[in-house]
């Protein structure tokens, strides 16, 4: 305790400079703890959402009610409706969020769905009956949940089951699948937690050289080794503790705001985002513990060899053991990439699920501990051949003290490495969440659309073409009559739906010959089929000899029909009565969501089948993208903060060296070039290694994932552009950190 009190008295007695350093350490720790709390709370938010949705899940059993569920998209959001019907007297189970189940003709809806019903009268058909109440938060997944309990009669439910209870089993609809959640946690750990540890270590090492000289002076006047270490650790722990409290308070305030705004695809209640007890313990105890550990290590040289510190003795070269982390890490991910390159598929098996994450962590550790010896070796070689005085000075300084430069750039290097891994996760999830076709189809029942709605959805932004898929008409008494399917479209429209179309002739009925579909034995040339129109008449179509050869994407609504009917055969103002309206757009996820939202706005009561897409998977992909975007923003904030703090601290620590060089006649431009080169060299080396290792890690993840894409060539230029932007920004930010101000106080010796 005496050593701690002594450290605090020395801190506050060292003047404005010491208090500013303490404040910066505390604020830096606060920023880091706030980011840590945000990452640790994400699983709690998802768990709270899943717990509420599981508690409302209906399960069959025995009671006085029947139930039937409907789950379909409303725009790009899932709409969940539970129809309940009383079949007799007696008690009934009640889900959380409502007081009792609605009777026939009544409905209880979520607040978001109630607002939609009020704002858009066309959506009344979604929830038949009178809305008599809203669902409380404990019965909803989040504030944007579209959910409804609709009362009906037993005769209205065609496929009902007897209702037993609510929430007695595990919900099959989790917001993020468990396997995907593990990947998400690992990725967030790489892009946030690794840079966060570096940042907190940087904050705990502010003014490290000045503090070491002060500790060495205390040691020389008689303070014991243990007390010297305690003095330094006490100051670091005090700053980290204050910062941890400020960080938790800052996160709690941010959570209250963000819970009301939400993220794309993810909303939560403020209580969901409050850190649980274990997360608070990690934040409030982990940050001071890390600061204590860093303080012990950084002060050991001053405590054991104070004279060399006071006399600025020769520094020991960085240890090369840190480079050993890169050997197994790059070896594993490079091995998977090599196997894929020679034509072997190493996907599958339980070994890759352990080897790849382990290799990624070892590679990240190698970037942290191995760049110092690599940079020192490169600086030594460049200094020998340097012809420029500024460049030679920068290389010699980097050779002597590569660690201080790496504290500046490590956070940004790890951020780029994590960005490459994040790209791989998004590519893999994008493959499993939707088809890999370059186009996306949407199928809408014609019976759910009027003429204005049909025209509106076909003219939406993003829709490239439309067609109609319909069955031939058969009389109710002719159950054994031949049946076939047709597509009503022009040749241009058909081409937009398929990969290849050959032999198409406009204004002519043609047989569709798809090499990937079985031959329709009913569609024999010369046989006629009637097709029902909206005016009650029937359009007779004879199967011709001529055909159009196509290769359709799979799955596709135009793969299977046997006839191509030109729209010119249908009278003006008349449309097919049966079948589905098919739209096609680009397969970009943003375009898909835009088209689905547009359909929901124009035809809110129409059911939409996004061909090849499960709407829950699309919603899950949106949630994962949002969380990874949050992780990237936090990682960027941490990396930039670590850079700014390190550069500013480095400039303050080297004022004596700058003063000495200025007294020797060095110009301001020379000093600035030296500063910029000292930052750009280790940053360039680190970013180059991060691009190579990060892309290999991304490729190994894609290879072992078993998807169609093994090499993300499209993401590689983005990494280079980001690296170049970081280099330019770091160089510009380093220029104002050097002031050519001669102050003899900075080079005074005791």
What does this structure look like?
This protein is α+β, with helices and mostly antiparallel strands. Helix content is 53%, strand content 14%. It has helices spanning 2-13, 16-55, 111-119, 178-204, 208-220, 225-261, 277-304, 306-310, 326-341, 351-385, 389-400, 402-433, 451-458, 491-497, 589-602, 615-653, 655-663, 668-705, 715-734; strands spanning 58-60, 65-74, 77-86, 106-109, 130-134, 146-152, 161-166, 439-445, 463-471, 485-488, 498-502, 510-514, 528-532, 538-542, 547-552, 563-565, 580-586, 609-610. The strands form three sheets. It has a nine-stranded mixed β-sheet, sandwiched between helices. A seven-stranded mixed β-sheet has the order 1-7-2-3-6-4-5. It has a two-stranded antiparallel ribbon with strand order 13-14. Helix 3 (111-119) links the parallel strand 4 and strand 5 (130-134). The mean pLDDT is 76.
Put simply, the count of helices is 19
Helix content range:
40-55%
Task: Find the count of extended strands (DSSP E, 2+ residues).
Answer: 18
Q: Structural class given helices, strands, pairing? A: alpha+beta
Query: Which strand order does the major sheet show?
Result: 11-15-12-16-10-9-17-8-18
What is the radius of gyration computed over CA atoms, rounded to a whole number of angstroms? 34 Å
- Overall mean confidence score, pLDDT: 76
How is the biggest beta sheet arranged? Answer: 9 strands, mixed
Low-confidence stretches: none
End-to-end distance: 29 Å
Apparent shape:
elongated
Measured by DSSP, the beta-strand proportion falls in 5-15%
């Amino acid at each position: 305790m005496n050593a701690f009190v002594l450290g605090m008295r020395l801190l506050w007695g060292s003047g404005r400079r010491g208090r500013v350093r303490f404040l910066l350490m505390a604020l830096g720790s606060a920023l880091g703890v706030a980011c840590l709390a945000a990452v640790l709370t994400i699983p709690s938010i998802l768990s709270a959402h899943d717990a509420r949705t599981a508690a409302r899940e209906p399960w069959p059993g025995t009671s006085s009610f029947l139930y039937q569920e409907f789950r379909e998209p409303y725009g790009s959001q899932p709409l969940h409706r539970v129809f309940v019907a009383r079949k007799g007297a007696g008690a009934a189970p009640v889900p959380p969020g409502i007081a009792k189940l609605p009777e026939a003709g009544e409905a209880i809806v979520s607040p978001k769905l109630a607002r939609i019903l009020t704002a858009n009268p066309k959506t009344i058909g979604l929830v038949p009956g009178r809305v008599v109440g809203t669902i409380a938060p404990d019965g909803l997944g989040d504030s944007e949940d579209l959910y409804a309990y609709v009362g009906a009669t037993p005769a209205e439910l065609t496929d009902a089951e007897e209702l037993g209870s609510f929430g007695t089993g595990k919900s099959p609809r989790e917001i993020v699948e468990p396997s995907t959640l593990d990947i998400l946690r690992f990725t967030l750990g790489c892009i946030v937690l690794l840079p966060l540890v570096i940042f907190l270590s940087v904050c705990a090492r502010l003014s490290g050289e000045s503090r070491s000289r002060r500790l060495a002076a205390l040691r020389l006047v008689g303070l014991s080794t243990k007390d010297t270490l305690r003095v330094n650790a006490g100051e670091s722990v005090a700053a980290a503790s204050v910062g941890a409290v400020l960080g938790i308070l800052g996160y709690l305030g941010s959570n209250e705001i963000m819970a009301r705004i939400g993220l794309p695809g993810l909303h939560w209640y403020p209580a969901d985002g409050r850190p649980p007890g274990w997360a608070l313990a990690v934040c409030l105890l982990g940050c001071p513990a890390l600061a204590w550990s860093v303080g012990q290590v950084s002060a050991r040289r001053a405590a054991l060899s104070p004279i060399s510190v006071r006399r600025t003795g020769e520094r020991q070269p960085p240890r090369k053991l840190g480079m050993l982390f890169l050997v197994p890490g790059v070896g594993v991910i490079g091995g998977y990439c090599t196997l894929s390159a020679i034509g072997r598929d190493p996907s599958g098996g339980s070994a890759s699920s352990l080897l790849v994450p382990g290799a990624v962590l070892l590679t990240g550790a190698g970037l942290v501990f191995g760049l110092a010896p690599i940079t020192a070796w490169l600086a030594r070689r460049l200094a020998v051949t340097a012809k420029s005085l500024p460049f030679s000075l920068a290389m010699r300084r980097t050779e002597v003290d590569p660690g201080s430069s790496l504290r500046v750039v490590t956070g940004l290097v790890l951020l780029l490495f994590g960005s490459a891994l994040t790209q791989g996760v998004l590519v893999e999830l994008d493959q499993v969440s939707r088809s890999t076709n370059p186009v996306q189809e949407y199928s809408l029942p014609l019976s759910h659309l009027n003429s204005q709605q049909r025209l509106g959805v076909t003219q939406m932004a993003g829709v490239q073409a439309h067609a109609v898929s319909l069955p031939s008409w058969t009389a109710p008494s002719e159950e054994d009559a031949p049946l076939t399917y047709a597509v009503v479209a022009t040749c241009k429209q058909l081409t937009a739906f398929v990969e290849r179309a050959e032999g198409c002739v406009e204004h002519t009925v043609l047989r569709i010959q798809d090499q990937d579909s079985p031959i329709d034995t009913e569609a024999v040339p010369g046989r006629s089929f009637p097709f029902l129109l909206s005016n009650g008449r029937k359009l007779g179509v004879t199967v011709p000899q001529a055909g159009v050869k196509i290769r359709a994407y799979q799955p596709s609504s135009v793969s299977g029909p046997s006839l191509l009917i030109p729209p010119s055969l249908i009278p003006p103002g008349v449309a097919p009565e049966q079948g589905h309206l098919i739209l096609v757009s680009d397969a970009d996820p943003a375009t898909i969501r835009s088209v689905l939202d547009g359909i929901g706005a124009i035809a809110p009561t129409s059911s939409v089948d996004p061909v090849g897409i499960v709407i829950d998977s699309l919603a899950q992909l949106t949630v994962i993208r949002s969380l990874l975007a949050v992780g990237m923003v936090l990682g960027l904030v941490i990396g930039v903060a670590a850079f700014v703090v390190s550069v500013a601290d480095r400039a303050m620590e080297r004022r004596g060296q700058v003063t000495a060089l200025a007294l020797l006649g060095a110009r301001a431009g020379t000093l600035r070039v030296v500063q910029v080169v000292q930052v750009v060299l280790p940053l360039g080396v680190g970013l180059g290694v991060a691009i190579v290792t990060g892309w290999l890690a991304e490729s190994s993840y894609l290879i072992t994932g078993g998807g169609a894409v093994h090499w993300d060539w499209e993401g590689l230029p983005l990494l280079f552009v980001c690296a170049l932007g970081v280099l330019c920004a770091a160089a510009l930010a380093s220029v104002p950190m050097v002031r050519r101000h001669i102050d003899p106080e900075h080079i005074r010796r005791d």
